[in-house]
Amino acid sequence: MKTTRQPLYQRFAEQLRASLENGVLRPGDRLSSVRQAALQHGLSITTVVRAYELLESGGLIESHPQSGYFVRARFAAAVMPAAPEEPGRSMPLPVSAEVDVSRHVLATLKSIHQHDAVPLGSPYPDPLLFPAHRISQYHGSVLRSGGPLGVLDDLPPGHPELIRQIVRRHVETGLSISPDDVVVTVGATEAINLCLQAVAKAGDTIAVESPTFYAMLHAIERLGMRAIEVPTDPRLGMDIAALGKIMQSQPVAACMVMPNFQNPLGFEMPDENKRQLVELGARYNMPIIENGVYNELYFGNAHPSVLKAYDKRGMVLYCSSFSKSLTSAYRIGWTLPGRYRVQVEKLKFLNTLSTSSLPQRAIAAYLTAGGYDRHLRRVRRTLQQRCDIMSAFVGRFFPAGTRITRPSGGYVLWIELPSAIDSMALYRQALAEGITIAPGRLFSTSDAYRSFIRLNYSYNWTPQIEQALRRLSELAAGMLD
């Protein structure tokens, strides 16, 4: 059983909350300045700021420009509410369905960059989290080196040094593979499409989580396949027993899952469940396509295990990319397709010939130089803090009955609003006011999630973000009148 050590800023926030609740700090009292608190408690300024922001988002304290932080005058009525309940386990019908989500997703993604909209609906993390300057330096260095950069220079499986770095990273996180296992792709999206194309054909049924990340549904739709949604728990992931019953009653060509920090639910599937899922696939000779694109963004103390680690027969096709952890500007991904490697490499060649050489070499140079782990530690701390702040804010301001997930990693919250609220209507109203969200309709083949939304918490907590969330809560509440 994994244990997660509470972050320092959360522990400090709990100490301050206790002082508020036992009357040591009273309404109207001024808190120590950030610098004073850091000196008094032996903390960094960043830790104190994070703790104050967390308490502020929960309504316990408030900041006064040029004056500092104060206990709210109405503290007695503003005590941090109990964390909202999580959404319940999904219960989709066990029937396969055609997939038609691309037009909704395309419209949503286009809207994110229109008129400087607040990107709460963005599928990408805040680009300011990434070391863009350093990577651009390596990009320039590769260009100045004068080496070959033609289309044919890095044919599949990809640039050797990048592959070596990918293998090294996997070995460091507990997965024993060799360079011969890797095929470099144009992001995780191409990896998923190639793997699905290698194991199934048009008309086949693919099992997915419910709700599921729409990139999975895109791949199924693109290839003319059908999807069957499997009941999924917001803490434990896909219900393996339910998947087994489905497979007993109808043919399932493959299963597509995101076992770690699933988008949109944010769970980390327990290790035993991962093992059982791989064993079920092997029993029925069913390939499993594993999307591990968020694996580096964990909140705990240890890197999560992957399905691929339990795979004894090469039935798990692992897919990932650097787009969510290092840079979204360079669409560089990879797959470990197991026994399907030859088919995937051939399909890669037929689909896109090769992956752009310059981005491969720039990322390889960055990884070789070191610093990736240091970057990831900073990103994880930041994302966990921003998750806590947005979760507290939603719990405080959104309509009664709102439920939210408790992510173990990644950067998205899945929110269940009262059933009377139509998330597509909320999406349109919010967009008219320059706020984007991802409505639940994007994450299923049915309308089962009409009252759900997904929010991106990776962006810095600014007055603009806070104002947008407050307005979103008002729009939601207005739908209940």
Automatic annotation (TrEMBL):
Domain HTH gntR-type: start-end pairs: 6-74
Gene3D superfamilies associated with the record: Aspartate Aminotransferase, domain 1, Type I PLP-dependent aspartate aminotransferase-like (Major domain), Winged helix-like DNA-binding domain superfamily/Winged helix DNA-binding domain
Coiled-coil features, chain-numbered ranges: none
Keyword Transcription: yes
Domain of life: Bacteria
Alphabetized PROSITE patterns for the sequence: HTH_GNTR
UniProt keyword annotations, A-Z: DNA-binding, Pyridoxal phosphate, Transcription, Transcription regulation
CDD domains in the cross-refs: AAT_like, WHTH_GntR
Family designation: In the C-terminal section; belongs to the class-I pyridoxal-phosphate-dependent aminotransferase family.
Designated name of the protein: Bacterial regulatory s, gntR family protein
Native source species: Collimonas pratensis
